[in-house]
């Protein structure tokens, strides 16, 4: 079972999702969830961000594909439809939101993986896709998608509950600071595989994601052992 805040390799992400994740937006994998790849790095191609103390991701839609003789994708509106009239990934995610807001479907469940640096990805957990809109950015129309972080819900065969428990994502600067401070190793045993970003003091006991002092690297074994003690 996947767990939010785990550190995962790209190939392991692809194996989990049973698809080559070559694009950032992947709607309707297995007909029960979608996948988004995001980055909050300074050189990231899209303007993604965290809001509401990390409980919400605002994700920017994706540009048209670059073609040999076509315009610069950054100079034209992000497309809802392709040249053959089919919905793009922007269009598929946008349609799902509109159907949810109209009461015709449950919110789309979305797994979000975040690229922290070359070769290092963090699984940010399951989100509900709850809103979308277009806005002007640098003189062109772009899509924006609002996703709320929810607790658990990794079993996509189970329908979403009526009211989901919100959670918070650890901010990228905190993750990078903790990774450097802990040397990319479990602080308990020095393991370098199956690592997770762990809250020293859990949210349920007043802990926070906003300071590195409350976040540490733990391997899966010690992370689960700590969870069992808390329970």
- The H-level CATH homologous superfamily of the largest domain, spelled out, is SRA-YDG
Q: Would you tell me the structural class of the helices and strands?
A: alpha+beta
Level-1 CATH class name of the largest domain: Mainly Beta
Strand % is 25-35%
The run of helices and strands is: EHEEEEHEEEHEEH
Q: Please, what is the average pLDDT?
A: 92
The unreliable regions are none
SSE layout:
Elements: E1 7-8, H1 10-17, E2 25-29, E3 33-38, E4 49-51, E5 56-60, H2 89-101, E6 108-117, E7 120-137, E8 140-149, H3 172-181, E9 195-199, E10 215-219, H4 220-230
Account of the 3D structure:
- The protein is of the alpha+beta class and 231 residues long.
- It has 2 domains: 7-169, PUA domain-like; 170-231, no CATH class.
- The protein has 4 helices and 10 strands.
- Strands 1, 2, 3, 4, 5, 6, 7 and 8 form an 8-stranded mixed β-sheet that branches. The protein has a two-stranded antiparallel sheet with strand order 9-10.
- Strand 7 (120-137) and strand 8 (140-149) form a beta hairpin.
- The mean pLDDT is 92.
